[in-house]
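From the pipeline queue, job 12 of 40. The input is one protein chain; the requested action is below.

Action: predict structure.
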Amino acid sequence: MAIVKMKKLRLMVIRAEKDRLLRDLERFGCVEFAVMDDRLREKGLYQESADTLTLRSTQNAIQNAIALLDRYAPEKKPLLSAKPQVEVDTLLDASVLKSAQEKAAEINGLEEKIKRLTAEENRQNGLIESVRPWLDLDLPLNTVSTERSVILWGSIPARVDLSAVSAAVEEASDEAELFRISGDKSTNYVLLVCIREAQQAVQEKLRPFGFTAVSFNGEGETAARTAEEAENRLAVLAQEKESVRDEIVRRASSRDELKLASDVAGAAAVRAEAEGRLMGMDSTVIMQGWVPAEKEKELASLLENYGCAWETEDPSPDEYPDVPVQLKNNRVTDALNMVTNMYSLPAYDGVDPNPLMAPFFILFYGLMMADMGYGLVMMIAAVVAMAKIKPRRGSLSFCRLLLYCGISTFIIGALTGGFFGDALEQVGKILGKPEGWGVLPSVFTPMGDTTMILIGSMALGIIHLNAGMLISAVEKCKKGDIASAVWEEGALWVTLIGIILFALNKTGVAPQIPEIAGKAVLIVGVVMILYGGTRGATGFGKFTSIFGTLYSTVTGWFGDILSYTRIMALMLAGSVIATVFNTIGGIANNLLVFAIIFLVGHALNFGLNLLGCYVHDLRLQCLEFFGKFYKDGGRAFAPLAVNPKYYDTVEN
């Protein structure tokens, strides 16, 4: 598989046919429109206008109405169900928008009414809370004075001694008195009565005690009466809100129409965005963009129906950074699209990493999870999801990746003899079976062959890294940079061969290989590395680059290979945790207790490993493997196409 070759498209069409052509291109789904050069304005062209904002606003209003229906009248549907299907032409027909807009406006208006009622409820609740401290006082809340006296409502912190406050008030005036109405842990609520002439003096005395005046915005009833009226008002508001909710629920029958209209508005908005990238004159419109080379013949057949002029050409190397990237994959490599997209798409002149990464990613995942039971769960989940939900695009890639990794996990689990850890063996002990019942045959086990698995993990790492180097060397040779391939990847390979020959002789595996042969090849490799690392340096920089090259090569390779020990670590951790839960479940020697602990424990272990193995596998690919050859920075191909949210499209 590879990166799809793109063609640069230029097209001029009669203005009267612009809208029809845009609809056909959206149905075609393989043309991306590019923003045209502003310098064309100097030649009398102008930017095409489009109602993108209006259409997006319409779509958002409809989607908000759908969300309200889902909140107040949840749709009952099977746990795993596919999206309904609709023809593409239906999504390109804007005739349904007017009716849907009206219905959406009604639903959104009802929600606004609920918001207003909620705001009034909050106000009434706030009023109740504000008068609560004064409920025992039989005095209208708007009472602030009499003919000769002044009444001050207020609060004083609870930490203040009220007797000291009363003494200070009496010191200011004999005709003044402080009454405590109520209080809580933080505040005392008080009422001060004094003659008018002494008001200023009394307030001066109160200031050091933290007295805060309270007002009630003209409430003319007592606190108790005000609270009662607020409670009655809350009951009325609750009834009104319930009535409005019922109105929204009664409109639930419009949900499917609104969903269709949302997707229609979305298709129209995408078309309008593309239209906004065009430039034209009074009678013609000019378009520029990209089309996959493999779709050029189909595009030609479509354009034959229009009075237009068009041409395509290959992009020049200078244009490569602007060329959109589309990956062409099969069923297996397509599953790795989500991994590549999480990292970064390759540059247009780079390499599609999916087919190169797929066997390593799937193998490493299976080695990390390594349990037949977990693999079986993954396979069943993927197959059921694909059969019931019928996913597309990214969801389909995820389901396929889950299936392939599940198969790998099951196979490696069969080699290690793990089926939910040692669950069968524990069940055999509970049932009183003979010793060894339920022990599955294995080639190796995580806990019994740890050293062998550790060495195997690092050996896989060496293979993985060398595969990345081989890809890099091939790409360099394709571009004519053979010298870099020789002095970089070639030097490392010669060094690696020398290390292997020397190790085979020293360990006695192949004593017939002369020791001097391994040393000679190793020395040649080191010399090649040093020369390759200092080729571009001059003067004193050539001397310092020798040490830099040695350090980066030794530490870099050593660190990279050690990274692959995570394969062994995750395999061991998953197996140990599974065994621990099985052992805990078997302590009670009761199948029911074992089943409960088994389900809870393995659900936790499975979830942890499902995510952990993916993250660590992803790290090995993105950092270790991609670091050897990958050129990222590609921009995803985004053609004018129908991409509905609530429906799946079918051919007309």
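Job complete. DSSP finds 20 helices and 16 strands in the chain.
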